Amino acid sequence: MSGSAKNWLIGCGVGCGFLIVLGLGLGAAGFYGVRHVAKRADRIEAAGAALAERFGPPESYVPPVDGSLDPARVEAFLDARRRMASARERTGKSLAVLDGSGGGGVAAKIVAGANFVPTLMSFMEERDKALLDAGIGNGEYRYIYTLAYFNLLGKDPGDGPGFQMNSNGDEDGAGWSASTRHETGGDNDRRRDEARRERAQGLRRALNGTQRENLRLQLEALKVAGAGSGANAAWRAQLAAEVEAMDNERGRLAWEQGLPERMRQALDPFRQQLDELYDPMTGALELGMNDGESGDRVRIRFGDGDSGGDGGGEKQDKGI
Questions:
Q1: In whole angstroms, what is the distance from residue 142 CA to residue 136 CA?
Q2: Structural domain for 155, as ranges
């Protein structure tokens, strides 16, 4: 996370609590000290920097050349998910309350709103620490997540709260907005459906951008190793076709149209554990899709308008 990322997070911590309660029509909530936010932002920055230094950027990850998945790496993925489980549960519950599906009335939303920024910051920190402790980088984590949840188990990339948190068009891609209004009726159903659709589209584009490079590096490594036997030649052709398909369809996830048998066989023994550790509220956050050259500068503004809001500018492709 860059220095400007910390500044965005500090600004978020100071302002978001006020804005979320104001959005609910309940006045100001000067609840969160700058000093505390700054310390938390420092820890987030340190964890993210350590993760990037150890494993490199997500797009530098090279999947196994032969198209397999080492069970030990799936275990590392599951270990990371277990380590972030408490933070994931807290964040998921907070999102559910703000979403309106988690029960409680206005008072519950005030509490969830007042605590949401520190909850989100805690999750960001715990996620990166979990990956570090489990010995898995962002690129590998996203790759296995895609294969396991979106491909093997058929989870929806649009899963999440019934509101959208998405880039609102700031020049650096750092301004994010979110609607917290939950009502009944057709308009609200439309907003919730739109939020899920936009989340899925944004997540697909972001993952496609990373995983096209992952698979391209995998293909280059395979070429260096040589095609060898007929089986390896067939795998090389299959991989080249997948890279081309992802180039042509920028919303396509890696191996979405058919998980190679080697990968399926490696994941199948972990099916139950994977399913038990899935949280439909926090998937986009778990994938760390706010990381990157500009997307790591996060400021979230809450309001009670349409999903996502326009934030004073045209929405960009990122969104959770």
A1: 10
A2: 3-303
pLDDT single digits (tens) 242-272? 999 999 999 999 999 999 999 999 999 999 9
Whether residue 19 lies inside any domain: the answer is yes
Q: Is residue 310 part of a domain?
A: no
54: left (phi over 0), alpha (psi -120 to 50) or beta: alpha
Asked if residue 309 is part of any domain, the answer here is no
What are the C-alpha distances in Å from 216 to residues 2, 37, 140, 229?
27, 40, 14, 21
pTM comes to 0.78
| 309: number of Cβ within 10 Å | 21
Output the CA–CA distances (angstroms, integers) from residue 168 to 157, 174, 179, 312, in the order listed. 21, 8, 12, 7
Q: Is 308 domain-assigned?
A: no
H-type helices in 249-319, by residue range? 261-267, 271-276, 283-286
For 62-73, letters b (16+ CB in 10 Å) and e give bbebebebeeeb
CA distance 206 to 126: 22
Place of tokens 């706010």: 290
Counting Cα atoms < 13 Å in the Cβ hemisphere of 161 gives: 27
Q: Which residues contact 11 (CB under 8 A, 6 or more apart)?
A: 299
Task: Return the residue matching tokens 């299959």.
Answer: 238
Structurally, the chain folds into a number of domains equal to 1
